[in-house]
Structures are given as C-alpha cells and as structure tokens.
Design a protein that fits this description.
With 264 residues, this protein is of the alpha+beta class. It has seven helices and 13 strands.
C-alpha cells in the first residue's frame, strides 16, 4: 500500500499553475521512488524494462501526491506525433492510445506525459475548467502538438486567452547537439528558426535550443508560456536523460512524469 509521500516526492511546481485554485500539478523528478540501478528513483515509464511492481508503486506515489491515491495516471503511448486525446475518464494503462498530449475537463482525471529530455508542457485555463499535458520533443513541437493541444482545450471549453502553459525540465541548448540535416529542416520550414541554433564545437554541427523553440510556438499559438529552467541532461541526481544514457551506452533509461489534475 502506498504510504504518505509528500515528504519524499519533491516535484517542481510553477506559481503560474499553482495560482489556479482547483488545479494541482507537478513536474516530478527522480526523488521519492523505489526503482534501483539505472532506473534509480521515481521511474514511471511503462515502456521501460524496470521491474513492473516498482513502476506501479512509483505511479501510485505520484497519484497519491496529487491527492488521488486510487487514481490511474492517464498517460498515452507517446510516439512523437502532433496528435492529442481529449478524455472524460482515465485511460487504461494496458491499452494506451498513441498520442502525445491529453486534455480533460473532468475533475479527478490525472493527465500526464513521460519525458527523459523532451519538453513536458502542462496547461490550464485560468477558470480551472480544462487542463492538459503535452509531450513536445523536437518532432512533436515541429509538427504541431502544441497548437493542437491548445485547439483541443478551446474545443473542451477553455478560452484561448485564459490558457496558461509551463514547460518543465527538458534538455537545454548547451547539451543538445544536432547535425546539419536537422538544422536545415528547421530553417527550410522557416528561416527565423535559425535563431534557435548556434555552432557547436564539432564542425558542421549545431546546438539546438529546444526550450526557446517550444516557448516561441506557445506564444505563436496565443498562449502565455514559462519555463521552469531545468536541464535534464545536466542534473543526473534529479532527472532521467535519454541523451545522457545514450552517451554512456546504457541499455535503457527511466522516465519522469509531469502531471496535472482538476479537483472536484
């Protein structure tokens, strides 16, 4: 049985979302979990090779911290798409639809996304009637997951000018090296995208500022956005990082969760 985890889980929170009375949220870190080894801490990744019992306990701890100890975490099967789900009841964990954002106007339904370098974005409208979570890696952000999430929130009853969004821990520009074809894809789509790249130490390669790009897409969608300012690659003690794992040639990696819920 999950115990009181308020003192062991230390999710990052934003005043922007905390100021909405009936919204509870958290950008959860590795702290407070029961997994070990390369998954040490609060690994909630259903797709990882971690012990399923430990993943279950970690997910239960997140739900309990959010004030819903018996709730399922509604996290989709993420595929780096622009696709958004709008739900009125929790998603079944055994049959998760493929999508990269989840929207709900139903109190008590926890929506969340899993990340390990990509950008987790939590949304809420100021009236506290609609919330959402989006997984914005470069591919999802580039193909429209941010704009589609905002549109889905409006369809669910939110006012566009009342939507607030916060980008959580993600890989920072100093650690996100990409090749010339990556930079060319962005600049070809919009020459202004060149501002998110600067040359790296390797000839012909670039450092990509994913957080700045995400914030710009939020602004273009008519939404006030903020960033918690944390880099997943830099802080191994608090965050899982796919790129850090890849550089070390480790066999797998954990995932942290960012989640939000409306109270009754």
């Amino acid at each position: 049985m999950t115990t009181d985890t308020r003192d062991t889980l230390r999710p990052i929170q934003s005043d922007i979302l905390s100021g909405i009375p009936n919204v509870r949220h958290g950008f959860f870190t590795r702290e407070g979990g029961v997994s070990s080894g390369i998954y040490a801490g609060l690994n909630v990744g259903l797709g990882s090779d971690d012990d399923p019992r430990r993943i279950r306990e970690n997910r239960d701890r997140v739900a309990a911290w959010l004030g819903r100890p018996d709730a399922i975490l509604s996290t989709p099967h993420q595929v780096h798409s622009p696709d958004v789900l709008t739900i009125g009841k929790p998603l079944e964990e055994t049959v998760r639809p493929k999508a990269d954002a989840v929207v709900t106007a139903t109190p008590g339904v926890i929506v969340g996304v899993l990340t390990a370098d990509c950008g987790p974005i939590l949304f809420a409208d100021e009236e506290g009637g609609v919330v959402a979570a989006a997984h914005a890696g470069w591919k999802g952000a580039f193909s429209g997951v941010i704009e589609n999430t905002v549109d889905a929130m409006v369809d669910a009853g939110a006012r566009r000018d009342a939507i607030r969004a916060v980008l959580g821990p993600s890989i920072g520009g100093a650690n996100y090296e990409v090749g010339p074809e990556f930079e060319a894809r962005f600049v070809s789509a919009d020459p202004a995208n060149g501002s998110y790249f600067k040359p790296s130490d390797r000839e012909g390669h670039f450092l990509f500022d994913l957080p700045a790009y995400i914030l710009a897409r939020l602004s273009a969608a008519g939404v006030d956005g903020a960033h918690t300012g944390h880099c997943t690659y830099d802080d191994e003690e608090r965050f899982f990082s796919y790129r850090r794992t890849t550089h070390r040639r480790e066999p797998d990696y954990g995932r942290q969760i960012s989640a939000i819920v409306l109270s009754d």
